[in-house]
């Protein structure tokens, strides 16, 4: 199991820039959802699978491995939890969540 690392060519970019490796990792199915759910609270595998509504066990296992390898997750007393790097990443994403809430409030409802 391997995640894209800074310096690696990734889907859509051969530059090896750290931001491109991060975007590749976060763009994988369920990666952001797993991080967001663990931002709410630590979780066991089964609890996390239930909270992610519809993720297959094999995909969840793969994502957990990649996110652990990227040092964004760790195993804690209550199951999987964000590492210090993972908490920092989610904190950086919170302004985007606020922007999305504002955007949704401004959208004109569909007929």
Characteristic terms for this protein:
111 residues, mainly alpha, two-stranded antiparallel ribbon, 5 helices, 7% strand
Secondary structure layout:
Elements: H1 18-26, H2 31-40, H3 45-51, H4 57-69, E1 73-76, E2 79-82, H5 84-106
Antiparallel strand pairs: 1-2
Structural commentary:
This protein has a domain at 30-106: Orthogonal Bundle (Arc Repressor Mutant, subunit A), CATH 1.10.10.10. It contains five helices and two strands. The protein has helices at residues 18-26, 31-40, 45-51, 57-69, 84-106; strands spanning 73-76, 79-82. It has a two-stranded antiparallel ribbon. Strand 1 and strand 2 form a beta hairpin. The model has no long low-confidence stretch (mean pLDDT 90). Residues 17-108 form the HTH hxlR-type domain. Keywords: DNA-binding, Transcription, Transcription regulation. Pfam families: HxlR (PF01638). This is Helix-turn-helix transcriptional regulator.
């Amino acid at each position: 199991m391997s995640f894209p690392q800074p310096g690696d060519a990734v889907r859509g970019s051969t530059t090896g820039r750290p931001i491109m490796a991060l975007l590749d990792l976060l763009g994988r199915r369920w990666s952001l959802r797993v991080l967001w759910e663990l931002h709410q609270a630590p979780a066991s595998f089964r609890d996390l699978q239930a909270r992610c509504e519809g993720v297959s066990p094999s995909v969840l296992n793969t994502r957990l491995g990649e996110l652990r390898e990227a040092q964004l997750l760790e195993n804690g007393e209550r199951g999987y939890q964000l590492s210090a790097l993972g908490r920092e990443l989610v904190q950086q994403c919170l302004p985007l969540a606020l922007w999305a809430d504002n955007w949704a409030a401004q959208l004109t409802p569909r007929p």
